[in-house]
Amino acid sequence: GALAEGEVSFVNPPYGRALSVWADKVACESILNAKKDMFCLVPSRSDPQWWGRLWDNANAVAFFRKRIKFWHPTQVGKQSPKFPNAMFYYGPNADKFREVFTPSARVVIL
Fold it and tell me: Which end of the chain is more exposed for a tag (fewer CB within 10 A), N or C?
């Protein structure tokens, strides 16, 4: 559904075939909620069709300089994916997104 006023959404879709369905949902939500902040963490792969759908509607994207690390409350240490990640940003604050992510990523304003 639509985001409530002032809400921020963080999307970390399942990696694999379901990502395409999530990309469609993110694209729709970004249009419906253009004045809300939404972040979408995905594998940094520009060749799948879902990537283009995310790119076409995004206001900015951050390409991380290093592999990100995930924390899990029941696992010792931090886990890294075996591939690079990117963070898409949707919303009215692309300049703030760039300011926050520039120390750890290359940021493109779209």
Answer: N
Secondary structure class of 96 (helix, strand, coil): helix
Q: Are 81 and 67 in contact (CB under 8 A)?
A: yes
Three-class DSSP category at 8: strand
Residues 66 and 81 sit within 8 Å (Cβ to Cβ): no
Q: How far separated are the first and last CA of the chain, in Å rounded?
A: 25
User: pLDDT per residue over 68-91, tens digit each?
Assistant: 887 777 877 667 777 899 999 999
Q: How far apart are CA 86 and CA 50, in angstroms?
A: 13
What pTM, to 2 d.p., does this model score?
A: 0.85
| Cα–Cα distance for residue pair 8/37, rounded to 1 Å | 5
